[in-house]
Amino acid sequence: MVYEAEICVSSDLQRSLVDSLNCGRLDGSTKTELRKLLHFGDHVDSSSNSTKIIVPMRLVKAVHEALKQDKTEPIYLHEMLKGSELHLPEYTPPPRNPELEERIQRLKAEAAEKEYKRMTKNVSNPETYYKENLGNELKMMNNQVIAVINFAVTVAGAFAFGYKGSEAAMEQPNVAIQLTVGLVLGTIVFFADLYFLIQKTM
């Protein structure tokens, strides 16, 4: 959209515009447009005073040309514009393309997600931490259970070997001797396994 330069009319410029409505060199369409902008009807009142009148710069130039040709004394444009101000219309941005807006929002979300991952990459996940700890504890407990079972089986096997071995070595079974031999072998294996368990855990 092309914005046309506009002028906030001063009292001096307003008098020149009103005078131009009686100028024969100004075309009818320009006069009609001026009457509307100056809030005049068909009757022109030069004493009328509006709080704020805004006219396009092209009309001011057209009035200047008409008055310059109609009057004998030179009329300068800068003198007509003395005391007037440039009116800057409020800028209204055009509506965004919906597809462009959707793409922008998606890119913003992706950028925020990347930033979040970058900030939290050194922070461990609590769920993963608990799973790893639980797995390590279960593995340690399994090793301890297996070690205890192995310890018990080894001691029981040593006792059984001593009991049955002594029975096979004697002509007549003697329960007291068999128990003694089994207990001695079981005790030796017990302390040997206990020593290796302590060495392994240290």
Question: Can you put this structure into words, describing what you see?
Answer:
The chain has about 200 residues and is mostly helical. It folds into two domains: about 5-85, no CATH class; about 125-200. It has helices at about 10-20, 30-35, 55-70, 75-80, 100-120, 125-170, 175-200, and strands spanning about 5-10, 55, 85. Strands 2-1-3 form a three-stranded antiparallel beta sheet. The longest helix has about 45 residues, at about 125-170. The chain is rod-shaped. The two termini are about 85 Å apart. Residues about 40-50 have low confidence and may be disordered.
Which features characterize this protein?
202 residues; mainly alpha; three-stranded antiparallel sheet
Protein topology:
Blueprint: E1 6-8, H1 11-20, H2 28-37, E2 54-56, H3 57-70, H4 77-80, E3 85-87, H5 98-120, H6 126-169, H7 175-201
Antiparallel strand pairs: 1-2, 1-3
Helix pairs in contact: 1-3, 6-7
